[in-house]
């Protein structure tokens, strides 16, 4: 069962709104834990050495016949050589200074080969390119712009921070980790406080949900710094969580709103 606060759970909630091909694409990506643009070259390579690719897809990845058929059809329809060449071209064109600006650079030409898969699936033409740009930033170890970008996101979906936190941990960039957690907790708390100060009856459940997101963000930040031995940072995030839970933050926000 998917975590209720995960991207997978959100997708499942709107499952019936996706077309059959979009559903197959989602199931395939879940099975491989990769995007389609990363999966297709692997399947093509396997076709060169494996006489029964369909059995391989079913046995190794648990794909049903519908998903196998869709994947093999996609291989026929997408120019994978052109897609891979365009990926390399995109990576070379990036400046690795601002993730949002490089995303816009990738969106300049929606006819380029990297959008072939999105086009065939009739989904917004950003998913594949966005993934490629992020992958390029990780490969270049452009940590600061990644931290700046993810530090502006709420802790609604904790999984989206795991890759960057793990990479920063491996690179021993404690200062950037603290900067990331500070940004994430600030954004998440503000999302909650705006709703709580407004206190609209129709938003009570959503407000409680956002309060839990903020509590979880502070708790996870404190656990992370405790684990790596940064006790001062861990204490700071624990204290902030306590101020949130005992209502001090909300009282300050209400006072500020009235002044």
Residue runs with pLDDT of under 50 for 5 or more positions:
none
Number of helices, counting only DSSP H or I runs of 4 residues or more: 15
From N to C, what is the helix and strand string?
Answer: HHHHHHHHHHHHHHH
Mean pLDDT metric: 93
Helix/strand class? mainly alpha
Taking the sheet with the most strands, its summary is: none
Q: Descriptors for this entry?
A:
0% strand; 259 residues; 72% helix; 15 helices; elongated; single chain; mainly alpha
Q: Would you give an account of this structure?
A:
- The chain is mostly helical.
- The protein has 3 domains: 77 residues, no CATH class; 63 residues; 116 residues.
- α7 packs across α9 and α12 runs antiparallel to α13.
- 25% of the residues are buried.
- The mean pLDDT is 93.
Secondary-structure blueprint:
Blueprint: H1 7-13, H2 20-32, H3 36-47, H4 53-61, H5 65-77, H6 80-93, H7 99-106, H8 116-120, H9 127-140, H10 143-150, H11 162-170, H12 174-198, H13 204-227, H14 231-245, H15 248-258
Short description:
By secondary structure, the protein is mostly helical.
